[in-house]
Design a protein that fits this description.
Helix content is about 40%, strand content about 25%. With about 150 residues, it is of the alpha/beta class. It has a five-stranded mixed sheet, with helices on one face. α4 links the parallel β4 and β5. α3 packs across α4. The two termini are about 25 Å apart. InterPro entries: RNaseH-like_sf, ZnF_BED_domain_contain. This is T-complex protein 1 subunit delta.
């Protein structure tokens, strides 16, 4: 994954000109304002379509929080479902947000709403056993979901 400003770098522009001198390279703003939001909407609509065809009581979620070496917080949420044909479908979303329980709950609620999933339809959650994760489960009133806490010792 490269930053959006890659398309503004002289070296990249020169490389593209060598590959195809007639190609008009879009600027960073095109990707941030048009291309990536359009792609997100297309993927979201596909996820919604696929989720509309499954049993709503079979939704499982995994979450992971970590901080990069540059001290940037990250939250990843993956939704897993099994279709009536026994095919596993997964969709993943990533956020750069603080790891407190309230933020994790809001991020989870936001992505599930965006994908057309009712939080109360979550059958199971697999995550680590950090206090922040437990707090987010409490914030979402998911105490009745099957919760699998993974303890990793490194």
């Amino acid at each position: 994954m490269q930053p959006y400003n890659l398309v503004d770098r002289k070296e990249f522009i020169n490389m593209v000109k060598v590959l195809n001198p007639r190609y008009s390279l879009p600027g960073r703003k095109h990707f941030t304002a048009t291309a990536v939001p359009k792609l997100y909407n297309e993927v979201r609509d596909k996820i919604r379509q696929e989720l509309s065809l499954i049993n709503k009581d079979t939704i499982s979620v995994t979450t992971e929080c970590w901080t990069s070496i540059a001290n940037t917080p990250h939250i990843t949420i993956t939704v897993h479902v099994i279709t009536s044909e026994w095919a596993l479908k997964s969709a993943c979303a990533h956020f750069d947000d603080d790891h407190n329980g309230k933020n994790i709950a809001e991020v989870l609620r936001s992505i599930l709403n965006d994908w057309g999933i009712d939080v109360q339809n979550i059958m199971s959650i697999t995550t680590d056993n950090g206090r922040n994760i437990l707090k987010s489960i409490e914030e979402l009133n998911l105490e009745n979901a099957h919760i699998f806490l993974v303890l990793l010792t490194i």
